[in-house]
Design a protein that fits this description.
CATH superfamily: Alpha/Beta hydrolase fold, catalytic domain
Number of helices: 8
Strand order of the largest sheet: 1-2-4-3-5-6-7-8
Distance between the termini: 27 Å
Strand content: 15-25%
Shape: globular
Largest sheet: 8 strands, mixed
CATH class: Alpha Beta
CATH topology: Rossmann fold
CATH architecture: 3-Layer(aba) Sandwich
Number of domains: 1
């Protein structure tokens, strides 16, 4: 019998968010930081999967309303170019406060995909309350765009929580050199386990259903990685 879950769009201090949790709540929590698609259909499916695994999942809405469900990708790219690092991190901390406060979580981590994967690494360095950091194909390009005012590599070296980073070997946006810098930054840490996955034939955003169409390597990478990510989250939020 499939576990019962509760799902809803909620407002947290003026921030729109998607909440999925086991019926009655859970002491285990995760903050979800989406890819460019925002809190569209697939992000909600990720959150629902976590809720069925016994985890309260609260999803950040980077665009404050629009998502891939109703907005052309070109418009989402325009909004991405205006996304401010410090403003986004302030919103993340506000949502974490809600997880630890009203939602009753005693342990919480952060998981992000693409742009959210980069932000997960940044937040991991900024907030020591986190029980884990999961960065799925983080978008850390070789030449950072102007909007990337914070150094993801430098922040990664300061994370104290356990980290799971998943990198596609055929990433078209993030060169291997960027991955190596992130991996080496993890290696310099004195605390916090590091689990690094490499999927040699997978491409950027391999977790996206759009990118899985006609691409068996992406399908396989997602099928292998997602159950292990859920196990990592459950292990690190067990208290």
């Amino acid at each position: 019998m499939e576990p019962k879950i509760e799902t809803s769009l909620v407002t947290v201090g003026g921030l729109r968010a998607y909440l999925a949790r086991p019926e009655g709540g859970s002491p285990k929590g995760m903050l979800l930081l989406p890819m460019i698609t925002g809190i569209g259909t697939q992000l909600r499916e990720f959150a629902d999967d976590l809720a069925r695994a016994g985890i309260t999942a609260l999803s950040w809405d980077p665009w404050h309303g629009p998502s891939s469900d109703d907005t052309p990708r070109d418009r989402l790219v325009e909004m991405l170019e205006q996304l401010d690092d410090e403003a986004a991190l302030a919103e993340h901390r506000q949502l974490l406060d809600h997880l630890f406060g009203e939602l009753g979580c005693t342990e919480s981590g952060v998981i992000g995909w693409c742009l959210g994967g980069r932000f997960a690494l940044l937040l991991g360095a900024r907030d020591e309350r986190l029980a884990n950091v999961v960065a799925y194909h983080p978008t850390v390009p070789g030449t950072p765009p102007p909007s990337h005012t914070l150094d993801a590599v430098e922040h990664t070296a300061r994370i104290t929580a356990p980290v799971m980073m998943l990198y596609p070997g055929a990433d078209q946006l993030v060169p291997r050199e960027s991955y190596v810098r992130l991996r080496d930054a993890l290696d310099t840490r004195k605390t916090g386990a590091s689990i690094v996955h490499i999927y040699p034939a997978a491409g950027h955003a391999f977790t996206s259903k759009v990118h899985q169409e006609g691409n068996p390597a992406n399908v396989d990478a997602y099928a292998i990685s997602w159950p292990q990510v859920i196990e990592f989250i459950n292990a690190t939020t067990a208290g």
